[in-house]
Amino acid sequence: MNVAGPPLPPQPFQFRGEFLDLLDQRELPTRQIWISCRNAAKVHHAIRKMVVRGAPVIGTVAAYGLYLEAKRLAAASRLTWNRLLQVADFLKSARPTAVNLAWAVDRALSALQGKNSATWVETLEAEADRQAQENVRWTLSIARFGASLIPMAATVLTICNTGPLATGGYGTALGAVLYAHWEQKKPQMFACETRPYLQGARLTTWELQQQNVPVTLITDNAAAWTMERKQISLVLVGADRIACNGDTANKVGTLGLAILSRHYGIPFYVVAPLSSFDFHCETGATILVEERDPQEVLYCGRKRIAPDGVSVFNPSFDVTPAAFITGYVTEQGLMVPPFRS
Ligand code: MRU
What we know:
This protein is of the alpha/beta class. The protein is built from eleven helices and 15 strands.
C-alpha cells in the first residue's frame, strides 16, 4: 500500500549492480562527489572515514558491501561460509556504536540460512535491496508519527544530521520536520553545528535548505541560551543504539541537550527505527562509545586550532539516560521503555 508523503529527497547512495556509489558527505555542502565501491574493503573504509555516516544508512551500505565481496569471492571460486563470516565481522568493525550496522549485516547473513551456496550472491543482493526499500518505507512512517508531535509553527532544536543522508529514505528526526513542513505546519529549525565533524552545519542545514525549511545554525555551546531566548517547542534527536531501559547513545552533545531540556521543560524525543534498539543491551552502561582521531578536534577544516602536544578526548557519541527522554518515535508509533524484542 502506498502512503502519501513528501517526494523522496536526494539519497546518499546509488546501487548499480557492479558498484555501490556513495555521495561523499565529507565534501558537502560545497562539492557533490560520488565514490564508487566494489568490494568490502572500500565500503569499510568509506564507513570508517565518514564518507557515509548515520546509523541506519551505514547498515544498508554494509549489507551491499557484503554482497559485493561475496560476488567477488564467488567469481574467484573462493566463497565459503567461513570467509563470509570474516567479511561480515570486518564490515561490522568499521564503527562500533551504531547497532544498525551489525543488525543489517547479521540480517543479510540470516537470509542465507538453509539456502544452497550457489544462490548466496543473488540472495545477498536481494536482501540489500530489500533493506534499502524498507528504509524508504519505515522512514516515511517515522516521519509521519514524528510530525504528529510537532505543533503548528513549532521551533525544533536538533543536533547532528538525521536526514535522508543519514538513513536513506526520508530521515528520522529531520524526516519528521520535513514531513511537518510538507503538511504546511511551518516548522522552523535550530541546528547545532555538531563539532568536530559539523554534520549539523554542513549536512542538516543543506538538507533543510533544499526543502525550503527555515533553519538557523547555532554553535553547540549556544544551545542553553537558544533555549532561554528562542522559545524552543521541542527537541528531536536520532539514535545510534537504544538500550532496553531506554538509555540512548547518540551524537556527542545529545546528553547536554537532554539535561537542558529538562531544566527548561522542553519535550525531548528520540526518533529512530526499531533497528536502532539493541535488545541484548539492558542499559546504556554497556554501550561502547566510539572515540575518534584527536586530529578531528585539533583541526577545524584544514586549520590547526590547538597547540602541539595538547591531549584530546574525542568521543563521537554520548549516552542519555532514559529519565531525560520524553518518548521514542519509531515506525510503529510512540513507544516508552522497557523495550523487549
Ligand atoms: O557520527 P555520525 O555522523 O554517524 O553520527 C550520526 C548520529 O549520531 C545520528 O544522530 C544517528 O546516527 C541517527 S541518524 C538517523
